[in-house]
Amino acid sequence: MIPKTETLIIGGGAIGVCCAFYLNALGKDVLLVEKDDICSGSSYGNAGLIVPSHSIPLAAPGIIGQGLKWMLKPHSPFYIKPRLNRDLLTWLWQFRGGCNIQHVRRSIPVLHHLNAASLGLFHELAKLDGLDFGLEKKGMLELFNTRKGYDKGIKNIHLIKEFGIENRILPLKELTEFLDGIRTAAVGAVYLTQDAHIIPDRFVQQLAGYIETKGVRLLTSCEVLDFGTSGRYVNRVKTTRGDIQAEEIVLAGGAWSTDLARLLQFKLSMQAAKGYSITFKRPAQCPMLPVMLTESKVVLTPMEDTLRFAGTLELSGFDQTVNLGRVQAILDAVCAYFPDMDPDSFELLEIWRGLRPCSPDGLPYVGRAPRFDNVIIATGHGMQGISLAPITGKIISQLSTHDNPSFNMAALSVERFL
Known about the structure:
By secondary structure, the protein is α/β, with parallel strands linked by helices. Helices cover 32% and strands 26% of the residues. It folds into 2 domains: 4-44 and 202-268 and 362-412, FAD/NAD(P)-binding domain (3-Layer(bba) Sandwich); 55-196 and 271-358, D-Amino Acid Oxidase, subunit A, domain 2 (D-Amino Acid Oxidase, Chain A, domain 2). It has helices spanning 14-25, 63-71, 86-98, 101-125, 147-161, 172-178, 200-213, 257-263, 324-337, 385-400; strands spanning 4-10, 30-33, 49-50, 78-80, 140-144, 168-170, 188-192, 196-197, 217-219, 224-230, 233-239, 242-251, 271-281, 291-293, 298-303, 306-315, 348-358, 365-368, 375-379. Helix 1 packs parallel to helix 10 (385-400). It is globular. The mean pLDDT is 94.
């Protein structure tokens, strides 16, 4: 007998699980399938940041020139594996098209609106029975250890303030107090007042457990192989665990969504961006809030009894090997900002890498798919997947009931690069 469901969600990361939560809350029958385990992808080991203040998209002026310089350094924050790949070249051309101030100004209110709404939903989710995922709204520090980096950072702060995003430039004396006396080589700092952080894997796994008690079916080790269609309707999903019939399908497969989109006969412009994190047992001297090492693109996040260092953006396809040189570059960056911190003396818990789904313009894809009326897309969140997960789930639930979300959905259109 072929399993049937009202709504089938493909993908068991933060986005998919949040979609399942909000669709289930509407009373819908929901089945979620995941090719590995729940929270086995980029939702697991990221920096856990919820970032209303980080509203400048990845595609921004100056990033092309900076990226070319970084490519000459093997352990830089940004790396593209040299290869003749049509999808990569198309993505890079589209990315180049977004690296202008007009795109940035259009995107800032979109990202801020989404992230601010998502933070509110995180506070609501934290009140659910059995959920304790370490939500803390302490803000975040941006540190700069070069005058050039600091000047650029202050320029960005003035830019986002034009859109009502308030932050504070910190005197160095006050910075010492924020860091609880930890010595730093920073020449300047900014306090991002609106940001928060969580323990990401705990959030996803606990929320998945919660929705399961509410009737959501979770089917892991279940890979989607193909779709059966009739006109503008997907009437069957073929998986490694058998066929499934669903009235509506939500595609939330992260970086793997490009392959699923091809099966649905449309192209989703996206690249898998590998990121790394190193998690230690929390040392005696530890920042009390997340810290961005701005020039190195590394984040330090305290997570209860652990401390996580996360960073890098590596476009190397679906290669999931661990490059120890890039791991070491993250650790070296920490020492460059905090001379008294010695990661070699910390108790290592885990080295992790994951593939984040990056669109060319730094905005996610959220909306109905072309060609098929019963397919909704929720992917392409880049480095903000965990931050935007609740609001994405909420929007998907609204689209499913044909409500009009109060967001600029045109900016998130699945068809904007077709």
